[in-house]
Amino acid sequence: MGPVVMAKETRKLVVTTCPTYSEFFERFNKGLHKRMGDIVRPNRAISMNILLEIYEQLESEWQGEKSLSLALERAFYVIAFGLALRGEEVEMVEMRGIRRHWDQAMAHEELPHIVIALLGRFKNEVGEAYHWMPMLPTTPRGLKPSLWVKRVLDCYAGQNVFSGYMFRNANGSKLKAKMMEPRFHDRLIQVQHSCTHLLDPEVDVVEEYGVSRSFRRGGTSEATNNGALPHVVELNGRWRKVNQSGASRPSITIREHYTDVRLTLKPLLAFTSHL
Hints:
Elements: E1 4-8, E2 12-16, H1 23-36, H2 48-64, H3 68-82, H4 87-90, H5 95-100, H6 102-106, E3 114-120, E4 129-135, H7 145-157, H8 181-194, H9 205-208, H10 214-225, H11 230-236, H12 238-245, H13 254-263, H14 265-269
Antiparallel strand pairs: 1-2, 3-4
Helix pairs in contact: 2-3, 2-8, 3-7, 3-10
């Protein structure tokens, strides 16, 4: 550890190499107290207007550099907000399931849509399981799930990657959602500087916002403000509700499960129709 300058009393600065004065220890200590419950500060909901401003930033950058990292960043935001998911749930987005039904879903005669496939073990489930969550290709206020998810898929296809987790490490393993948080905070800081009417410069975005629940709370609030009834919000989180009920999950194939989703598309798409 290198030397650290610390304040002592009111007019003295002291150089020290004590580990307890390092930036790492300060962050560790804060995280420890949060996990112990001494510090409780839930993520603030991100508003639709702030999200749209971030989208403008990303679209502008995309026109100059069509990179996978930019596509992944926006896809993360639109999936998390559009489906009101927690960060650890977005980690489970899987590409093979999305690709498998992309053409069929987009060509639906009455309700074109995309289906976000979440692959993983939830709650009391045994083994890996798919959860299907349909979204409108474009929402009334301008979120564009189909555009940015397709850009991600195309970028991966250029690398001959067609399956596995969408948000992944270099070795293909699932990326922790917290790894997306520094970028998210940087975007919010940019909004603070350019649009003070949207985000007060006095807000500490690192402390107030996070990928764990800011998008989930924001999406739920936006849908509710736009007239979504409670049962619409609850239906959007149907797989979590089933898992919490303690009921056993039926044994059905991936194709049969998506067939069930297609039979109830209208109510399942009601959530994103309010965004």
